[in-house]
Specification:
Blueprint (H helix, E strand, L loop, with lengths): L1 H26 L3 H13 L15 H19 L1
Amino acid sequence: MGQQLNKTIKRRRRKAYIARKKALVKAGVSRKARAAKSEPKAAKKAPAKKAAAKKAVKPASIEAVEAVVAAVEETAAE
């Protein structure tokens, strides 16, 4: 019997929904008009944070890598 009850509840809710939508149409209110009005408010929000700048590779770290590569080459030559 519960399944039949769900069907009637759905119908009642749908009827109420359609009635609300018809009332909005009669009043001349549209959802698009509301969304257009809310967009300027969104523009007032604080700007999004900028992404952190990528750090440049330090010359010291490049020199350290070159030193390691040179040491490996020397051991490989022996």
